[in-house]
């Protein structure tokens, strides 16, 4: 597949020369296979996250084609395809499966109880049943969580700071388990600030226009960060702006595509951290013994261009706290 070959070439670009890890594996005669599994599509933004993972491996001495081999699979946001491509990685006997998105991690866990699985991102894996605990996951899953649902309360607070009179908001989500968890978190957080929530679901490109048009009477639109919605972030931002809906989104990339406010982790940082887990597992660590890492730094991104188009004035206190202002 052309896209897959291009992505493999991108991952391989810039690797350093042979290292002590390469030497050790030449001696053993075995090159580990890493299955890279993403529930989303090969969008440039997500490819950038996987490039960060590749860079993390590079720093640890792994050279694609010499002491590690990648098998890349994209599920295109389709659950039926996700099950198929996970089965392919299991059949290939990948040494480690690295997942992008909570749905991918759960699908991998359903498919194998023996191959180590490293999450590069995803909501609280305890709440969705992927692991037993963050401190001692047990089983074959470990990695990094983005805490995407737990950040909802902070996002509500930031939106209220911008729109103090807002009493009604809408939330756009994708129908997945992770998305449902985020909607529930939003509903709980909104109660304390006396904000009512109306949810609309969209999974396919043709769903977005009627979904957003249905909530034009709300004061703002929350967009749940998800592998399904991520490739459509530009379209969602365009439709929200057309209907004069300020948006709170879950990632810098959404704001760069035209969303108004984003408060989230840095996903490239999470993917780089996932490389450390892969290295530990390839050196003999058991995934169930490796505590799941939680992010400690979060980014506030404000799209001032979108604010001006909406006729909104961003409070100076909010601008001063922003990690990035897009003009």
Report on the structure:
The protein is α/β, with parallel strands linked by helices and 327 residues long. The protein has 2 domains: 2-147 and 267-289, Rossmann fold (3-Layer(aba) Sandwich); 152-264 and 299-326, Rossmann fold. It contains 13 helices and 12 strands. The protein has helices at residues 2-12, 20-28, 44-59, 79-91, 102-111, 152-162, 177-192, 205-213, 233-242, 252-256, 267-282, 304-310, 316-321; strands spanning 33-38, 69-74, 96-100, 117-121, 141-143, 168-173, 196-201, 221-223, 247-249, 261-264, 299-303, 324-326. The strands form 2 sheets. The chain has a 7-stranded mixed β-sheet, sandwiched between helices. Strands 2-1-3-4-5 form a 5-stranded parallel β-sheet, with helices on both faces. Helix 1 packs parallel to helix 3 (44-59) and helix 4 (79-91) crosses helix 5 (102-111). The longest helix has 16 residues, at 44-59. It is elongated, with a radius of gyration of 20 Å. The protein starts with a helix and ends with a strand.
**Class of the largest domain, according to the CATH hierarchy?**
Alpha Beta
CATH architecture label name of the largest domain: 3-Layer(aba) Sandwich
Which regions are unreliable across 5 or more consecutive residues at pLDDT < 50? 1-8, 10-28
| Portion in strands | 15-25%
Shape: elongated
The CATH superfamily of the largest domain turns out to be Response regulator
Question: Order of strands in the sheet with the most strands?
Answer: 7-6-8-9-10-11-12
Total of helices: 13
Structural domain count? 2
What is the tally of beta strands?
A: 12
What is the fold-level CATH name, i.e. the topology of the largest domain? Rossmann fold
Rg measurement, Å: 20 Å
Run of helices and strands = HHEHEHEHEEHEHEHEHEHEHEHHE
For the residues shown, what is the average pLDDT?
A: 88
Structural class of the secondary elements? alpha/beta
Question: Kindly, what is the distance between the CA atoms of the first and last residues, rounded to a whole number of angstroms?
Answer: 38 Å
